[in-house]
Amino acid sequence: MLTRTLAKNKRIAMIAHDNKKQELMEWSKYNKVTLQKHEIFATGTTGNLLEETLDMRVTKMLSGPLGGDQQIGALIAEGKIDILIFFWDPMAAQPHDPDIKALLRLGVTWNIPIASDRSTADFLLTSSLFHETYEVKIPNYSEYLKRKL
């Protein structure tokens, strides 16, 4: 296994489906002091809302359906995102469901913490591990890459 060190100050990607944006903003406002100590990345409208809610600069990608989920996924694959907080709506079909599945797959592939609802986000943010450096174990995919098709 390989490892990657998450710094004390995390790079957090935050995404929310339309029906979950208000919930993410309420959660973010409640955790504003903690979140302001970290670097925030977000998709489209969510990023604009987070800038207002957190009173800080947020690195914004495109809207999810326009490729923002894929941009966040690319940053995860490049080791430039440490944590994914994605309040997704399980009751609404999304036109970009394949992109969402790919994003979640990349988060699991690169073994980053993922919160998909408020309770999990609460547990993640209040973990003592969140507030210190942390060694992430990354599977070694070299054998997978060498396989013959």
Descriptive tags:
five-stranded parallel sheet, 21% strand, Rossmann fold, alpha/beta, 149 residues, two-stranded antiparallel ribbon, globular
Spatial strand order of the main sheet: 4-3-2-5-6
Number of individual domains: 1
Q: For this structure, what is the CATH homologous superfamily? A: Methylglyoxal synthase-like domain
Tell me how many strands there are.
7
Mean pLDDT: 93
Largest sheet: 5 strands, parallel
How would you sum up this structure, described in words?
The protein is of the alpha/beta class. It has a single domain (2-140), classed as 3-Layer(aba) Sandwich (Rossmann fold). Helices cover 42% and strands 21% of the residues. The chain has helices at 21-30, 32-35, 44-54, 68-77, 97-109, 118-126, 142-146; strands at 2-6, 11-16, 39-43, 59-61, 83-87, 114-115, 134-138. Strands 4-3-2-5-6 form a 5-stranded parallel beta sheet. A two-stranded antiparallel sheet has the order 1-7. β3, α3 and β4 form a beta-alpha-beta unit. α1 (21-30) runs parallel beside α3 (44-54) and α4 runs parallel beside α5. The longest helix is centred in the C-terminal third of the chain and has 13 residues, at 97-109. The chain starts with a strand and ends with a helix. The mean pLDDT is 93.
Q: Which helices and strands appear, and what pairs or packs with what?
A:
Blueprint: E1 2-6, E2 11-16, H1 21-30, H2 32-35, E3 39-43, H3 44-54, E4 59-61, H4 68-77, E5 83-87, H5 97-109, E6 114-115, H6 118-126, E7 134-138, H7 142-146
Parallel strand pairs: 2-3, 2-5, 3-4, 5-6
Antiparallel strand pairs: 1-7
